[in-house]
Q: What sequence folds into this?
């Protein structure tokens, strides 16, 4: 029996497809992923039951699975089982080759099959192992070389860049998507197809590029990014961080994990594109686990797909797919076969966000509209814009100056931050101790209740129920004047400066502000909908101490639709 131990689920997917092509009497092939194994000894014992050849490929080499790999090697040596050990990178891993219990030439050839690991090459790899170590005589072809980089068009496959670009509408913004070569080779592209379709449906052009990495090559270039340079208005990537390219190189000279060079970060290749870069998450968990989770992502996903990419300057866009597993029963490789399954609603959400960034980049400064919201906690005039170590009013004026210098229309004559704050508070605000009926009736920024009711009806039923249970039926009874919600703010040309609406109402403002279970009020929703859908903000800047958005109910990361 052939055993394939791999930390790459895409290789299990490719192996399952390859086994389906093999003759019925071909030696049995079984796969296993050591990731998350609690008992390495039991894992190795089960793995080697009936095994005659073991192929082991671990991302990070021996350091990626040290205890388990050492147990595996010792057991193979004791039982006379051929062991071909490989690292997970493109370049050969000398330590793993030396640890193999098979000729180095055979190890190198197995590595070449997996380096170009589409289903065809994996099939030939299995034939090669059967003939070389089991003396079966099935026949095999040498490894077929596949490029490290390509342009993929859903429904058509790989094409030249010019051919893909020729189908684009020049009047539409273009969103690029970078994804891993392993997904393309194993046919694991349903999430790519869904995302590209969502971009096109939302009014953009989509271009998808697959590659092995976004790290710099030996010449200092990132080929995938160079391919897209000048052709995209925004970039979405599902790949890991770019800037860590110097870390592994520094480790060789400075020692593993030590030295100042280890801490260097180089994301210049992404910055050179001069476009917004967003991170789309391909969750390694199931959709069911995501739906049930208050956090949204596992600690591993949070680190590798959120926290570390932020060092590249990437913006978290959200989740677009989940890893689902076919049942292990009846599997051609003895384990559940993983697949990346897209979430179409979330693909649409991320596509829309990417296109808004793309359009904002192309929008003339004179046509841009920016809303600046000052935090207010608790809901008192004296606390508007409160921050620790930040002069919020002065910072707002500096921001206005910068926007005007960039070509935006900013209309104000405030000489000092105090003048801005007095004007803002004089227009109303949310302080119940000072807000008057006259201020409400004179307020010019309004959202008709009829509009709010129409948008409110679009919310998920569970969210509407929670809002009404706490705050009553829409439109509620706060900050209303006749048939309108009132928004506390000032229009300064194409800049809006406003006070963030209250998180809730009650005798314990601190508890209300930080209660993660408390649904938003009707007025809270109305203010943000007015800024987005009526006033037409292209961007919102929250200024001051952290606001209240982060305390709203829902997932911490990889948010759902409500």
A:
């Amino acid at each position: 029996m052939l055993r394939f131990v791999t930390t790459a689920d895409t290789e299990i997917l490719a192996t399952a497809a390859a086994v389906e092509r093999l003759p019925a009497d071909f030696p049995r092939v079984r796969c296993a992923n050591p990731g998350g194994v609690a008992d390495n000894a039991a894992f190795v014992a089960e793995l080697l039951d009936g095994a005659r050849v073991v192929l082991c490929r671990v991302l990070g080499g021996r350091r990626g699975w040290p205890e388990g790999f050492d147990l595996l090697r010792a057991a193979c040596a004791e039982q006379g089982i051929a062991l071909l050990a490989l690292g997970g990178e493109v370049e050969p891993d000398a330590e793993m080759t030396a640890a193999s219990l098979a000729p180095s030439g055979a190890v190198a050839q197995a590595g070449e099959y997996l380096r170009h690991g589409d289903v065809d090459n994996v099939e030939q790899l299995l034939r090669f192992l059967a003939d070389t170590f089991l003396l079966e005589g099935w026949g095999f072809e040498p490894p077929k070389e596949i490029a490290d980089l390509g342009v993929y068009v859903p429904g058509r496959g790989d094409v030249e860049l010019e051919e893909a670009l020729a189908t684009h509408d020049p009047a539409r913004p273009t969103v690029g998507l970078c994804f891993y070569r392993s997904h393309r080779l194993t046919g694991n592209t349903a999430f790519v197809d869904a995302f590209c379709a969502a971009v096109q449906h939302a009014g953009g052009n989509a271009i998808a590029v697959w590659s092995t990495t976004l790290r710099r090559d030996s010449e200092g270039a990132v080929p995938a990014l160079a391919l897209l340079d000048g052709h995209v208005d925004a970039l979405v990537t599902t790949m890991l961080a770019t800037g860590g390219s110097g870390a592994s190189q520094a480790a060789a000279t400075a020692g593993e994990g030590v030295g100042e060079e280890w801490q260097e970060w180089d994301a210049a290749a992404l910055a050179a594109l001069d476009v917004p870069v967003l991170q789309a998450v391909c969750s390694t968990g199931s959709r069911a686990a995501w739906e049930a989770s208050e956090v949204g992502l596992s600690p591993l996903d949070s680190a590798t797909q959120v926290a570390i990419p932020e060092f590249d300057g990437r913006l978290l866009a959200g989740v677009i797919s989940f890893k689902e597993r076919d049942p292990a029963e009846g599997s051609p490789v003895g384990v559940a076969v993983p697949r990346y399954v897209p979430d179409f609603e979330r693909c649409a959400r991320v596509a829309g966000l990417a296109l808004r960034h793309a359009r904002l980049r192309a929008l003339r400064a004179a046509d841009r509209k920016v809303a600046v919201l000052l935090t207010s906690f608790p809901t008192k005039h004296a606390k508007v814009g409160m921050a620790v170590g930040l002069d919020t009013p002065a910072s707002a004026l500096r921001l206005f100056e910068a926007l005007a210098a960039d070509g935006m229309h900013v209309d104000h004559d405030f000489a000092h931050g105090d003048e801005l704050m007095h004007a803002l508070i004089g227009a109303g605000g949310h302080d119940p101790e000072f807000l008057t009926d006259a201020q409400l009736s004179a307020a010019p920024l309004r959202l008709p209740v009829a509009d709010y009711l129409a948008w409110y009806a679009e919310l998920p039923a569970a969210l509407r129920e929670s809002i009404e249970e706490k705050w009553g039926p829409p439109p509620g009874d706060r900050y209303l004047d006749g048939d309108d919600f009132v928004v506390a703010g000032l229009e300064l040309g194409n800049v809006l400066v406003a006070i963030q609406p209250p998180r809730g109402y009650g005798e314990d403002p601190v508890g209300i502000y930080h209660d993660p279970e408390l649904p938003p009020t009707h007025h809270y929703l109305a203010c943000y909908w007015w800024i987005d859908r009526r006033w037409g903000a292209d961007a919102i800047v929250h200024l001051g101490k952290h606001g209240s958005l982060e305390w709203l109910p829902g997932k911490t990361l990889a948010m759902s639709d409500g």
